[in-house]
Amino acid sequence: MFRRAFWFTTGAAAGVWATNKVHQKLRKLQPDSLAAQAADKAVETGHRLRQFALDVRAGMADREEQLHDALGLAEPTEARELPAPRRAVLETSYRTTRTPGLTGPTGKEDH
């Protein structure tokens, strides 16, 4: 009698555990959950890329400093200014032959 009760209880507990696991997996495979997981992975990847870029910049600065020391180059004492922005010299000097109000698929184009 006790043996049957033990195995019945064990089977019921295993069934509840398996049902819960299946429901968890099904919830993970729903579209909302998959979208959230993809968004989390994208954010995580963005953070990793940002950290990589910061590490690369720090390494570049260290290497540049090493090269300056090895080559005996002096650091500039004052920062250089950027050149002034260039202006376009050429302007459009052509004329259009269209009349602003008469264009379109009506067949009344001014050509």
Provide tags for this entry.
2 helices, 0% strand, 111 residues, mainly alpha
Task: Describe the overall structure.
- The chain is an all-alpha fold and 111 residues long.
- Helix content is 61%, strand content 0%.
- The protein has two helices and no strands.
- Strand portion: under 5%
Rg: 36 Å
Class from secondary-structure proportions: mainly alpha
Tell how many strands the DSSP assignment holds: 0
Poorly predicted residue ranges: none
- Note the main sheet: none
Reconstruct the topology from this structure.
Blueprint: H1 2-28, H2 31-71
How is this structure best summarized?
By secondary structure, the chain is an all-alpha fold. 61% of the residues lie in helices and 0% in strands. It has helices at residues 2-28, 31-71.
